Amino acid sequence: MRNIVIAIDGPAGTGKSVTGKLLASKLGIQYIDSGAYYRAITYLSIINHIKLNEINKINEIARNLKLNFDGENIMLNNVNISKEMRSLEVSNRVSLLAKIKPLREIITEKLRHYKENGSLVMDGKDIGTVVFPDADFKFFFTSDINVRAARRQQDLVDYGYRVQIDKIVNEINKRDEIDMTREDSPLQKATDAIEVDTTFMIIEEQVDLLYKTILQSVNLEDIKK
């Protein structure tokens, strides 16, 4: 048996988080949402009135940050911050904060430690290129911008937020631009990643595609839980 790492990268709204969570459950291994770290730090910087140029303070938050993944919930010091992390205010700021190089280095180190606990599925924007460049399986999700916006809008509704679709499209376009052009760890497809266009796929189809791809190379009994 051995630890395997499954990396799912791609822009927001492509379904990578839900797919990753369900895939991990199906395989019986841990699931880690790397974006939760950046969102949690962004949320904490907002409520503590820390500006984006106060890098030392932001880095200090990152060093001390301890998140727990409890099913659907993200727990920070035993407090569920899942809803707060998904707010539009956090979404509009998170990509700017994620550009900070020393912050990314701190989070990358935290993310790598999860491999010590067994096999895992991790989704994000630089998992297959930076966090785990030697991941056993790499997938890169893409999708039509309008479909992504509709998914994002439903996510917000589920958390109690109501936002116009055109505002969400603008938000996603801005985030894409920042994520793809940042100097450190930009959003890009790893050269050995399998691209998956989720525009016309339901979540179950996405999970099934990845599951079957993985089992073509690895037996379930060989995966360390």
CATH topology: Rossmann fold
H and E order:
EHEHHEEEHHHEHEHHEH
Rounded to an integer, what's the Rg over CA atoms? 17 Å
What would you say the CATH architecture is?
A: 3-Layer(aba) Sandwich
CATH class: Alpha Beta
Mean pLDDT: 93
Strand order of the largest sheet: 2-6-1-7-8
| Helix amount | 40-55%
> Approximately how much beta-strand content do the residues carry?
15-25%
What does this structure look like?
The protein is of the alpha/beta class and 225 residues long. Helices cover 49% and strands 15% of the residues. The strands form 2 sheets. Strands 2-6-1-7-8 form a 5-stranded parallel sheet. Strand 3 and strand 4 (73-76) form a beta hairpin. The mean pLDDT is 93.
